[in-house]
Amino acid sequence: MVPVLILYYSRHGATRQLADAIAKGVELAGATAMVRTVPSLNDATGEPDDSTPEKGPPHVTTKDLETCSALALGSPTRFGNMAAPVKHFLDTTSQQWLQGALIDKPACVFTSTSSMHGGQETTLLSMMIPLLHHGMICCGLPYSEPALHETQTGGTPYGVTHVSSNTQKKLSEHEKSLAIAQGKRLASLAKKLSTQQEDSH
Prior knowledge:
Layout: E1 3-8, H1 14-28, E2 32-37, H2 62-67, E3 70-78, E4 81-82, H3 84-90, H4 94-99, E5 106-113, H5 120-133, E6 137-138, H6 146-150, E7 161-163, H7 173-200
Helix pairs in contact: 1-7
């Protein structure tokens, strides 16, 4: 069993669509998709809302992070950076960093914006930084994916993206194709690394 954690924050559902497509790719590659969210932050206190979500995936736990074989981390863009709830969760993972719980696990990142040039690539790159501190192996998407050449909406070699405009709320066909491909690639890398680690023991 190779569990792949797909962890995201989505306020209006755009980033969740990417998470669902990545999860599909993970399952198609023969791994297990564990879809989780991070809690929203209270606007008044800045503290997370730990109440159980009424619908959709459950909130992530640190055990999910420790037991996964790979991680896909997603967030909408906030001024060219990840959303505060995602950063808040990452800031609570010092214990996992001290334990080296994520070292040598593959990871990818994904994001959505409401405009074509809304800071997608800076968000993706900034999201990689804490993952690199955890010792994770960041993987993007190679240009061998035809949709990366053809897309007129989202999609970057740093990770999959979605442009959610007033006229285009759902993933475009290219965005969906790339998200599925990202999930497949992440799961395939996780399976290869897991096999190598088992063989070395």
